Amino acid sequence: MRVLASKLVAGLLLTLSGAFCGASETTPLVFESGEAKVPLVELYTSEGCSSCPPAESWFSSLTNNPELWKKFVPVSFHVDYWNSLGWPDPYSSEEFTARQRYYGEVWQSGIYTPEFVLDGREWRPFEGNFAQTGKIVGNLKGIVTLDGKLEIIFVPRFKPIGAMVAEVALLGTGIQTAVHRGENAGKTLKHDFLTLSLLKCSLEPSPAGEYRGYLTLPERTLPHAAAIAVWVRRSDAIAPSQAAGCWLKRN
Known about the structure:
The chain is α+β, with helices and mostly antiparallel strands and about 250 residues long. It has one domain (about 1-245). The longest helix has 20 residues, at about 1-20. The chain contains three helices and 14 strands. The strands form three sheets. It has an eight-stranded antiparallel β-sheet. Strands 3-2-4-5 form a four-stranded mixed β-sheet, with helices on both faces.
């Protein structure tokens, strides 16, 4: 029954995604970065933070950016360290807080919300665009099969590059929350590119110079996900080597 349910969920997801990623009821969902570097843009935010709504509004505007997925991949993480201010953020996670704190340790600086991270470094939207350099780094491809499995294939421009890992975020979009307490009491907050699940796997090198990894997408999250983001990095680095993403469906 679990296998059948997984196939039904994945089939429905792929039917909805066809207009965006070329999938159909009978073909896998395939998305890729291209050879040029695609930056990963992270936002660390919280429903309990009064200064976060403007940042999230700007982040939401990226849903209509024609360069979305082609020249940048956005991912939002809700942290839990403001939950004691009167409003526990339902999308917050200790895991996401730990991720931001790790950045702070590497940078030897404090963390805060809202905070943007561009390819492993602290960044602010007013500093300019997403630092597209046109640098050729290699192609990253994701293949979502009809039974809800994800295959990740990275072909780096220069080989070998050492041990590699992949991270995968299933993203919600158009999500709204009516906040009743805390610093944003009385507001209805809208979230886009919100991380619902974060997964990780090692990539195995092949004699041909490819790096491959496999994951099973969680059944509890998959039906609620509007997009998927994948990025790969060396196991000893914080900056992604390449990123890719795609709409699964639109609200």
